[in-house]
Amino acid sequence: MKQNKKIVIADDNKELCEVVSDILTESGFIVDAVYNGYELLTYLEDNVPTVIILDLMMPEKNGLSIFDTIKQVSPNSRIIIYTGYQEYQASVYARSADRFLVKGGEIEDLVNAVEELS
């Protein structure tokens, strides 16, 4: 029943979004991508994703600055922080998210996290 599971990737790396989107789509998920925090907040006005894959560092409006807003606007969505900044692993954001993954690891780790949370 993954057909009803909507995933949104919020990351300014379009290549990464495409790769992750392709893998999750093949696994049966509905996947959308946005490229900065403003786009994510606009997306959340009309969509309730099961899982939000959130990059912390994006241009214009980053994941850190909108994290609390995401929790308020979409309280039922699970959040996976997916960042290249390992130093945030001990942050309040990492503790508030459902998962914290550092980019550069196996992409299967991200896919498995999405599977587990959806």
Radius of gyration: 13 Å
Structural class of the secondary structure composition? alpha/beta
Query: Could you spell the SSE succession in H and E letters?
Result: EHEHEHEHEH
Describe the strand arrangement of the main beta sheet, using strand numbers. 2-1-3-4-5
Instruction: Give the helix tally.
Output: 5
Q: What average pLDDT do the residues reach? A: 94
- Strand runs, count: 5
- In percent, how much strand structure appears in the residues? 15-25%
Q: How would you describe the shape?
A: globular
Measure the end-to-end span: 10 Å
Q: Give unreliable regions as ranges.
A: none
Please give the oligomerization state of what you see. Answer: single chain
Please summarize the sheet with the most strands. 5 strands, parallel
Report helical residue fraction: 40-55%
What does this structure look like?
The protein is an alpha/beta fold and 118 residues long. Helices cover 42% and strands 20% of the residues. The chain contains 5 helices and 5 strands, in the order βαβαβαβαβα. It has helices at residues 14-26, 37-46, 63-73, 92-96, 107-117, and strands spanning 6-10, 30-34, 51-54, 78-83, 99-102. Helix 2 (37-46) packs parallel to helix 3. The radius of gyration is 13 Å and the shape is globular. The N and C termini lie close together (10 Å). The mean pLDDT is 94.
Give short descriptive properties of this protein.
5-stranded parallel sheet, 118 residues, alpha/beta, 5 helices
